[in-house]
Specification:
alpha/beta; Rossmann fold; 2 domains; 13 helices; 14 strands; globular
């Protein structure tokens, strides 16, 4: 009996010890790792100090609330007040910064195939000749819940999940990093992609209001500035008008338009945008007051600009949801079109379902980026962390501040008025069915920005999708445009 009791107690304490060791193995107080690298861009070698680790985020009472993971690239031998410093992040909400890190801005990029899709594994990292590190130091931030970033022990996730909370926590990271690296005198930029543009717009005003930090510029890649322009909810006709040019571009790429529209993409886009302004908006505004003759004429035009049948468009009540279009355009081939990049295709198992089972432009690249960021951080940068690196973290429920149609244009406009020297660059892909380029144009054209400040806004377009940089010709063009933006006065 005594031996049995001793054995039970032994097992019990051994189990507790194992559990304690397991818990310790996922702790978030890992030491920062500093590495020195020589990076070659355009044939010029540059020495960088790379810092990988956590920055402790604390509130005004000096209470630690979270550990925010980052990777920074700081060029050696530069005068701190002269060298630009950029903070970069992706969107989601819930996305880590690996897409911009290993796809566009950093010293290494994943080798993609000729279409901009991921090849078969194993994946290859190569030197990124189109890196922006010759233009600016870069800090890649993983907001709480993404990458290795986690709330501190006992802290609730909800205080970080939501537009206002996210902007304030990332804004505090910026302030703390400027303290840590003594970079307050540096020209400061923010680079955001997708929901990261929502965050960037909010940050431009938050940093002014809370800390008196004036940004020199913000880069908005695949913008989500006004959610009404892309959320295809019932009774939201604006989204259908904003998606139509992207649909026309996609049908052009897949050669589904009439011969006259297949001659030149830019000409075709100008025609469909004119149709939207002069006819389509008015037709949707009329609703049930639209006559049958008017409805038939609008359906003819939509068929012309989309490649879809008139009968299908009439059944859709003149409104073409992007998610249905992705399945319908090539319905005779059992292939669906990518959401993030509508040039890419994937087989469908259920030809009758009007929704896509997968996204041709995300299914393969997800594995490539997940594998590559883990390899890069652990092997090349020598950073060890037993936590899973959340490329897409679960940050639900997310509070969108002012409802389902969050609009950050007022914050951006106010920031430009208070900081009239701030430059804004909006980069969009024609083949993006996640955040349509026409929606970004609509949002900025309806911003309350004085005419005198609109010269500070640069727009550029690319013949690829949401992550246009995955397609090498667009990666190179993006870098060319980045040089213009960072060197503009």
């Amino acid at each position: 009996m005594k031996r049995t009791l001793i054995l039970i107690l032994s097992i019990y304490f051994t189990t507790l010890n194992c559990l304690a060791q397991t818990k310790d193995s996922v702790k978030t107080d890992y030491k920062t790792v500093i590495t020195k690298k020589t990076i070659t861009i355009n044939g010029k070698a540059m020495s960088f100090t790379i810092e990988t680790g956590y920055l402790a985020w604390k509130n005004d009472n000096d209470e630690q609330k979270a550990n925010v993971f980052y990777t920074s690239y700081i060029k050696d031998g530069e005068q701190e007040g002269k060298r630009p410093l950029s903070f970069a992040f992706n969107g989601g909400p819930g996305s880590s910064s690996l897409w911009l890190h290993l796809g566009c801005l950093g010293p290494k990029r994943i080798v993609m195939d000729e279409t901009g899709n991921a090849p078969a594994p194993p994946y290859e990292l190569t030197n990124n000749e189109s890196s922006w590190l010759d233009l600016t130091d870069i800090v890649f931030i993983d907001p709480v819940g993404t990458g290795f970033s986690r709330p501190s022990k006992g802290e609730k996730d909800a205080q970080f999940y939501g537009y206002k909370n996210d902007v304030s926590s990332v804004g505090e990271f910026v302030r703390l990093f400027l303290n840590k690296q003594k970079r307050w005198a540096s020209p400061k930029y923010v680079i955001g992609e997708s929901y990261g543009t929502t965050r960037a717009s909010g940050l431009s005003k938050y940093l002014i209001d809370e800390h008196g930090i004036y940004l020199n510029g913000i880069v908005l890649i695949s913008s989500t500035l006004d959610f009404e322009t892309f959320r295809e909810f019932e009774h939201n006709d604006l989204a259908y008008t904003c998606y139509l040019p992207s649909i026309t571009a996609t049908s052009f790429y897949h050669k589904k338009l009439a011969t006259v529209l297949q001659k030149d993409l830019q000409t075709s886009l100008k025609k469909v945008e004119s149709f939207i302004s002069n006819y389509y908006v008015n037709a949707l505004y009329k609703g049930t007051l639209l006559s049958q003759n008017e409805k038939s004429n609008i359906a003819d035009s939509l068929s012309y600009y989309t490649g879809l049948s008139k009968a299908y468009i009439l059944k859709s009540n003149l409104r073409i949801p992007s998610w249905r279009y992705r399945k319908e355009l090539l319905n005779d081939s059992s292939l669906s079109i990518g959401r993030f990049d509508s040039r890419l295709l994937i087989p469908e198992t259920d030809a009758l379902d009007d929704d896509c089972a997968n996204d041709a432009s995300f299914t393969k690249i997800r594995a490539a980026f997940s594998t590559s960021i883990n390899y890069y951080l652990r092997s090349e940068l020598k950073y060890n962390n037993d936590l899973p690196y959340n490329i897409i973290g679960n940050v639900s429920p997310w509070e969108y501040a002012n409802g389902k149609y969050l609009n950050t244009i007022p914050d951006l406009s106010e920031a430009m008025i208070q900081n009239p020297d701030m430059k804004v660059w909006i980069a969009s892909g024609y083949y993006d069915l996640a955040t349509p380029f026409f929606g970004a144009s609509y949002a900025i054209n309806h911003a309350n920005i004085p005419t005198s400040l609109r010269k500070n806004i640069l727009t550029s377009y690319y013949e690829a999708g949401h992550m246009m940089y995955l397609y090498k010709p667009c990666l190179e063009k993006l870098k060319t445009d980045a040089v213009i933006f960072f060197q503009s006065k």
